[in-house]
Amino acid sequence: MYFSRIIFSVCLALTTCSVAAIELIDSLHSLVLDAKQVLTLDNTADFTPTAVSDVETERLGPNSLAVYAPENAGFYSLVLSNNKTSKRLLVIVKKPFNANNKQLNNYQIGLYPAPYKGYTQYSAPNGFIEVFEKDLSRQLTPHVQVKNVICKQVSGFPKYLYVNNDGLMMLEDLLSFIQNEGIKVSKFAFISGYRTPHYNRSIGNGKHSRHQYGDAFDLYIDEDGDGRMDDLNGDGKLTIADVDVLYKVFEKFQKHSRYNGGIGRYKPASHHGGFVHIDNRGFTARW
Asked: What average pLDDT does the segment 14-19 reach?
């Protein structure tokens, strides 16, 4: 434990190094971290990092591992194994960002508003995921790619994305829940994920839109691949009634899970077939 004491002493002296904890569960596939952050990964009693991992780790106790985020922004691999299975985690190190700036490497971020009603979950991100064109098809989870959740604003590369760990886990948990409810769905179709304040303002959305904070998604089900909501109620029509089916399942999901936030329904329009918004803002909102 001497090495641990050295590392943690150094961390205390560095403002870029922070300690947090998260549990290794089935829906955890990515770890979004700050540069040089130390993460405690719990529920790892019988798991050992393998030689193919390119992230430094250390056993802290019988049930916990320390994960040391690299200094440089990028995508890294952490593979844990036991005598039954292996678990591959994508470790994503964010590029630091000063919220007083409007750009990051010439990519328009815009200015974040003061936190809504002082809530800490509405604080501006301190870093962003750096995305090059080759990263668009990268799997953040088994059912979500970078291109599904990146902001739609037009720009060159690199682009910058913000999504948090709970947001990604919520998507996986939500998909499993809907499947268990008997709705045919292999993955979500996305209308919108992350939005920069710059883009959010350009489309006339509210200044505290949850899409700016890494855990809000506009979703629909499109198993037939026509780009519009499927006929979820089986009446042979594509109407707001299909949106309502998904909305009610989303509500049931939040009632039976640890996630709490906004859920909103949007009726079909000329440019989309209707969708449902869900986020993890920490308090209930419905529309």
From this structure: 48
If asked whether residues 46 and 61 sit together in one domain, one would say yes
| CATH number of the domain encompassing residue 255 | 3.30.1380
Domain end point (choices 90, 108, 137): 90
The H or E element that residue 242 is part of is helix 240-255
Q: Which residues contact 75 (CB under 8 A, 6 or more apart)?
A: 90, 91, 92, 93, 135, 138
Q: What is the mean pLDDT of residues 97-120?
A: 97
Nearest to 28 by CA among 99, 115, 91: 91
Mean pLDDT of 12-17: 41
CA atoms within 13 A on the CB side of 114: 2
Domain's final residue, options 90, 122, 151: 90
pLDDT reported for residue 97? 98
Q: Buried b vs exposed e over 24-60: b needs ≥16 C-beta within 10 Å?
A: beeebbbbbbbbbbbbbbbebeebebeeebebebeeb
Distance CA 53, CA 80 (A): 8
Give the pTM.
Answer: 0.93
Question: Could you tell me the sign of the dihedral formed by the alpha carbons of 115, 169, 142, 25, in that order?
Answer: positive
Instruction: List the structure tokens of 87.
Output: 């678990």
Residue range 264-272: average pLDDT? Answer: 95
Count of structural domains, the chain = 2
What span, in angstroms and rounded, lies between the C-alpha atoms of 235 and 227? 19
Strands 74-81 and 86-93: antiparallel
Q: Is the peptide bond before 158 cis (omega within 30 degrees of 0)?
A: yes
